[in-house]
């Protein structure tokens, strides 16, 4: 089928959806209590056995209702149960319902906790204009965890996301490195990384790494969708990570929060935000300043981050949202270490001239249009103006700094994207509500990458010397056009099937030059132009079965795809080289499991998965003509990752007291077993070897005790032994390849809140463990990157 026919079919499907279903009747409304909207209320419709919950604006909807007599039942913690008889005739019914607060008796500060006080959770089958039925989804509710938010401590913040391998080399939490199910953690590059639903990575096509991570203090919740996200959000094997930021409170015109944190190694963090709702305009803005000297020599960073969000309902159906994000980050990097240096003193540094700088400007505008009670449209458009510059010495770490000019690698990113989504809900299969999602995405990325000599000094001077880069200079334009559709077929009130399809067209280009390194004559300038166009279709299907007890069985299988990019091919690095014949990776992800809640005191999710890679790109330990060790990045072989994941979070006091207690005693365990191996290869050096950076065992557990005023939390993390290259080398002189030993780390956090004042304290790495999580072949190394030793932190918060 030609591209034109594909687009015609897609347009026809969208028009057909709107035309056929727009006239169906619906029963919808808004729920209030004491003049305030009520979100999270359970609304049941009989006959029919349908159930939904009110959104953040107190709204609910039952689309496709047939004429007849019905009864609504509304249940909400803190309110009397409410029943309302409704007659649907020949037009849509819109109601405003007002709940009555539950009669209560004061009993010595006894607290009844609601079901949403778990730190972990999952996404609903339909959220906004997205579909998650039958998919492995995870949610971290930041307000419900006691963690060191000022340092973005990833062990604590992501402790309830199963199977994550975390690179811990940034004590300030400026850059995030997480990988799931055996995927490389490098700057979240194997996830589609978004903020409020739009891309934040450097270049989704050419360089999908994230140098910007929102401050955890500004995050409402973190949403993770595994490999099945490939149909809605992009083709990545890892899936989606979406940072849902806070908004201004809906019930007050102004709120001010100031958090000031001091800690070990000169750490200081100032986070200040304002927000509120006035005349239907909701606004939220923050500014953060962060600095530290770190525990290693030649190590320092400072960062400024700012954000503003405004949204305004132009009409009852149309809302417009605008957002802007700014970040500036400058760091001196201490470099890596050899194995022997790490064993002697991990705080030492043998590089004093390495620097790193990031500038980020991210813009977004979103339109939400409620066509009718059963059909909604979301259109988001965003742009990135950003850059990152790495300056220093990339030579082997087992050799001293040779002096002379430093290497400068400078990137500039100029990206645009626009995504249109249409969600329609309709009646099918004995009156059950089914949901259709269709969408179109257009993305244009442009990366400028220059590499060459910089000055011979030791300061943060990011200028080429000479002015023209003398190693390489490229521009990498890329275009992505995608169309996707998924449909939840609600077969019965318990069982749903969700098939999906995504069409992708990717065009990547390279235009520039590089210098061919010559041994005895001057280097030769080599002009280069390349273009790679490909189109393909991905398919997936999922299913879900809901038991009356609230337990759900789910399963999914979806195809994945990862395209190579030209801007990886021309980086000059003695420690790592790239195969010029790299080709795209293909494969699929399958998972299935059981999850749910038991009487609001227990949340659990246990699943198994299979991730299949064809032509997996990896690193092979090899030697050059001078017998020096380096990494070769190439299509190593096919691989398969199989594993078991489980998360259990329980409030033991809620169990023992039937939901009524002065305190909470919460415990969670996060456990994953992963076997990841190279297959289908005749290369004996890697046949049946473990895939790099895949610990076979990951275990994190935490215990939390407290009430609404105070809380104390303990967390323990264990990560098993892993390798840094495909040959599973135990040791190399350059420390670029070798084993990453197993390690275990503990953290403690304490919080106390009284009216407008909050006090938060934390001890990171309680037992002062000596460990590392990464061997780098370039910045911030090369070599072993030691993780932070024990640190103490104290935060004072004022909320007005």
From TrEMBL:
<keyword id="KW-0798">TonB box</keyword>
<keyword id="KW-0813">Transport</keyword>
<dbReference type="InterPro" id="IPR008969">
    <property type="entry name" value="CarboxyPept-like_regulatory"/>
</dbReference>
<dbReference type="Pfam" id="PF07715">
    <property type="entry name" value="Plug"/>
</dbReference>
<keyword id="KW-0675">Receptor</keyword>
<dbReference type="InterPro" id="IPR036942">
    <property type="entry name" value="Beta-barrel_TonB_sf"/>
</dbReference>
<comment type="similarity">
    <text>Belongs to the TonB-dependent receptor family.</text>
</comment>
<dbReference type="GO" id="GO:0033214">
    <property type="term" value="P:siderophore-iron import into cell"/>
</dbReference>
<dbReference type="Pfam" id="PF13620">
    <property type="entry name" value="CarboxypepD_reg"/>
</dbReference>
<feature type="domain" description="TonB-dependent receptor-like beta-barrel">
    <location>
        <begin position="325"/>
        <end position="766"/>
    </location>
</feature>
<keyword id="KW-1134">Transmembrane beta strand</keyword>
<dbReference type="InterPro" id="IPR039426">
    <property type="entry name" value="TonB-dep_rcpt-like"/>
</dbReference>
<dbReference type="InterPro" id="IPR012910">
    <property type="entry name" value="Plug_dom"/>
</dbReference>
<protein>
    <submittedName>
        <fullName>TonB-dependent receptor plug domain-containing protein</fullName>
    </submittedName>
</protein>
<dbReference type="InterPro" id="IPR037066">
    <property type="entry name" value="Plug_dom_sf"/>
</dbReference>
<dbReference type="InterPro" id="IPR000531">
    <property type="entry name" value="Beta-barrel_TonB"/>
</dbReference>
<keyword id="KW-0998">Cell outer membrane</keyword>
<dbReference type="GO" id="GO:0009279">
    <property type="term" value="C:cell outer membrane"/>
</dbReference>
<keyword id="KW-0812">Transmembrane</keyword>
<feature type="domain" description="TonB-dependent receptor plug">
    <location>
        <begin position="137"/>
        <end position="236"/>
    </location>
</feature>
<keyword id="KW-0472">Membrane</keyword>
<dbReference type="Pfam" id="PF00593">
    <property type="entry name" value="TonB_dep_Rec_b-barrel"/>
</dbReference>
């Amino acid at each position: 089928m030609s591209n034109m026919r594909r687009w015609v079919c897609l347009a026809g499907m969208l028009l057909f959806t709107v035309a056929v279903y727009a006239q169906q009747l619906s029963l919808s409304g808004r729920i209030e209590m004491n003049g305030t909207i009520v979100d999270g209320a359970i609304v049941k419709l009989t006959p029919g056995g349908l159930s939904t919950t009110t959104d953040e604006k107190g709204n609910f909807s039952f689309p496709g209702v047939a004429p007849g007599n019905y009864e609504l039942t509304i249940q909400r913690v803190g309110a009397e149960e409410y029943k309302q008889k409704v007659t649907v005739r020949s037009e849509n019914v819109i109601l405003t319902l007002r709940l009555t607060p539950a009669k209560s008796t004061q009993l010595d500060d006894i607290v009844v906790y609601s079901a949403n006080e778990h730190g972990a959770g999952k996404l609903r089958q339909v959220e906004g204009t997205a579909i998650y039925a039958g998919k492995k989804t995870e949610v971290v509710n930041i307000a419900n965890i006691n963690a060191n938010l000022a340092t973005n401590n990833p062990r604590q913040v992501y402790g309830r996301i199963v199977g994550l391998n975390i690179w811990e080399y940034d004590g300030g939490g400026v850059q995030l490195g997480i990988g799931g199910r055996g995927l490389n953690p490098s700057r979240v590059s194997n996830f589609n990384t978004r903020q409020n639903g739009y891309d934040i990575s450097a270049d989704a096509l050419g360089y999908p790494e994230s140098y910007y991570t929102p401050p955890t203090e500004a995050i409402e919740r973190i949403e993770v969708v595994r490999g099945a996200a490939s149909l809605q959000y992009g083709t990545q094997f890892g899936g989606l990570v979406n940072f849902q930021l806070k908004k201004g409170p809906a019930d007050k015109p102004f709120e001010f929060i100031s958090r000031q944190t001091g800690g070990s190694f000169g750490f200081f963090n100032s986070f200040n935000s304002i927000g509120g709702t006035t005349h239907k305009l909701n606004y939220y803005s923050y500014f953060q300043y962060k600095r530290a000297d770190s525990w290693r020599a030649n190590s320092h960073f400072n960062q400024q981050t700012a954000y503003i969000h405004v949204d305004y309902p132009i009409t009852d159906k149309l809302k417009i949202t605008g957002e802007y994000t700014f970040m500036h980050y400058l760091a001196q990097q201490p470099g890596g270490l050899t194995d022997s240096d790490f064993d002697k003193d991990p705080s030492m540094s043998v590089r004093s001239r390495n620097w790193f700088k990031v500038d980020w400007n991210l813009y977004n505008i979103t339109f939400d249009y409620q066509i009718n009670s059963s059909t909604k449209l979301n259109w988001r458009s965003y742009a990135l103006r950003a850059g990152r510059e790495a300056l220093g010495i990339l030579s082997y770490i087992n050799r001293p700094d040779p002096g002379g000019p430093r290497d400068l690698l400078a990137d500039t990113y100029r990206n645009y994207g626009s995504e249109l989504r249409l969600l329609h809900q309709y009646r099918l299969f004995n009156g059950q509500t089914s949901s259709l999602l269709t969408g179109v995405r257009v993305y244009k990325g442009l990366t400028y990458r220059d590499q060459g000599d910089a000055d011979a000094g030791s300061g943060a001077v990011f200028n080429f010397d000479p002015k023209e880069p003398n190693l390489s200079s490229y521009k990498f334009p890329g275009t992505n056009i995608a169309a996707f559709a998924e449909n939840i077929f609600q077969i019965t009130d318990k069982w749903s099937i969700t098939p999906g399809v995504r069409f992708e067209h990717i065009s990547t280009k390279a235009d520039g030059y590089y210098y061919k390194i010559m041994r005895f004559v001057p280097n030769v300038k080599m002009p280069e132009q390349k273009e790679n166009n490909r189109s393909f279709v991905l398919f997936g299907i999922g299913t879900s079965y809901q038991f009356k007890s609230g337990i759900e069985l789910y399963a999914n299988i979806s195809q994945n795809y990862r395209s190579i990019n030209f801007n990886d091919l021309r980086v000059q690095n003695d420690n790592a080289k790239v195969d010029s014949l790299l080709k795209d990776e293909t494969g699929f992800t399958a998972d299935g499991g059981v999850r749910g809640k038991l009487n609001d005191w227990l949340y659990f999710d246990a699943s198994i998965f299979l991730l299949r890679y064809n032509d997996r790109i990896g690193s092979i330990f090899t030697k050059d003509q001078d017998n020096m060790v380096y990494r070769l990045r190439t299509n190593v072989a096919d691989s398969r990752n199989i594993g078991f994941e489980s998360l259990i979070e329980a409030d033991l006091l809620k169990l023992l007291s039937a939901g009524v207690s002065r305190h909470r005693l919460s415990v969670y365990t996060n456990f994953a077993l992963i076997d990841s191996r190279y297959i289908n290869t005749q290369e004996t050096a890697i046949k049946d070897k473990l895939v790099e950076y895949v610990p076979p065992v990951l275990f994190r557990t935490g215990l939390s005790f407290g009430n609404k005023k105070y809380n104390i939390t303990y967390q323990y993390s264990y990560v098993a032994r892993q390798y840094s290259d495909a040959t599973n080398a135990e040791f190399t002189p350059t420390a670029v390849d070798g084993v990453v030993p197993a390690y275990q780390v503990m953290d403690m956090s304490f919080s106390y809140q009284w009216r407008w004042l909050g006090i938060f304290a934390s001890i990171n790495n309680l037992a002062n463990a000596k460990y590392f999580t990464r061997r780098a072949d370039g910045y911030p190394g090369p070599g072993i990157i030691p993780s932070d030793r024990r640190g103490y932190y104290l935060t004072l918060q004022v909320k007005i």
